[in-house]
UniProtKB/TrEMBL annotation:
This is Uncharacterized protein YndB with AHSA1/START domain. Residues 25-139 form the Activator of Hsp90 ATPase homologue 1/2-like C-terminal domain. Transmembrane segments: none annotated. SUPFAM superfamilies: Bet v1-like. It comes from Catenuloplanes atrovinosus. Belongs to the AHA1 family. InterPro entries: ASHA1/2-like_C, START-like_dom_sf. Gene3D superfamilies: 3.30.530.20.
C-alpha cells in the first residue's frame, strides 16, 4: 500500500455511498479533461468511444483489467467542470458512479468520487479498487509511475470491511 486508505461510507435512503476524494493543484477544467477526454482517461482507467452526451451509452475499455475488456457505460449526467454521472451493468452487478469537482478557495480542485451501492456488501473489494484507480488518475496527471494494484488489494480490504 502506498497511501493509507481514505474512503468512507455514508448511508442513503437507497443504500450506501462509498466516497473517496482526491485533490489536485490544477484548474478544474484540466481535472475535468482528465476524467472525460478519452486520450486522458486511457492513461489511468481506459479509453472510450461513442457520443459523449447525457443519456448516451459509450463503450469503455477497462485498460488496466485483465484482458482489457470493453463494457457499455451510460452517461447519466454531464455537467462540465462540476458533475459526471455514469452507470453500467456487467457480470458483477450494477454500477452507479458520480464524480463531483469543486474548486477550493486556495485554488485546489477537489474530486469527490461516489459509488452508489445498494448495500455495503462487497466494499472490501470495491474500496481498494477505487483507491487504486484514483491514485492512477493522480499519477497520470503528475507523471509519477503508475501504482501497482497489489499495493492496494488485499492490504486495504480490512480497512474497508471495518467501515460496514
Amino acid at each position: 500500500m502506498t497511501n493509507p486508505p481514505s474512503g468512507r461510507l455514508s448511508a442513503t435512503p437507497d443504500g450506501t455511498d462509498l466516497i473517496l476524494t482526491r485533490t489536485f493543484r490544477a484548474p478544474v477544467e484540466d481535472v475535468w479533461a482528465s476524467i472525460t477526454e478519452p486520450e486522458r482517461t486511457a492513461r489511468w482507467y481506459g479509453t472510450w468511444t461513442g457520443e459523449a452526451a447525457p443519456g448516451a451509452t459509450i463503450k469503455v475499455q477497462l485498460g488496466y483489467e485483465q484482458g482489457a475488456p470493453w463494457t457499455d457505460m451510460r452517461i447519466e449526467a454531464c455537467e462540465p467542470y462540476r458533475r459526471l454521472g455514469l452507470s453500467a451493468v456487467d457480470e458483477h452487478g450494477s454500477w452507479h458512479l458520480e464524480l463531483f469537482l469543486s474548486t477550493r478557495d486556495d485554488g485546489v480542485t477537489e474530486l469527490r468520487f461516489v459509488h452508489h451501492l445498494p448495500s455495503p456488501d462487497g466494499v472490501g473489494e470495491m474500496g481498494p479498487g477505487w483507491e487504486y484507480y484514483l491514485d492512477m488518475l493522480a499519477a497520470s496527471r503528475s507523471g509519477d509511475p503508475l501504482p501497482a494494484f497489489d499495493d492496494y488489494y488485499p492490504s486495504m480490504k480490512p480497512y474497508y470491511e471495518a467501515l460496514r
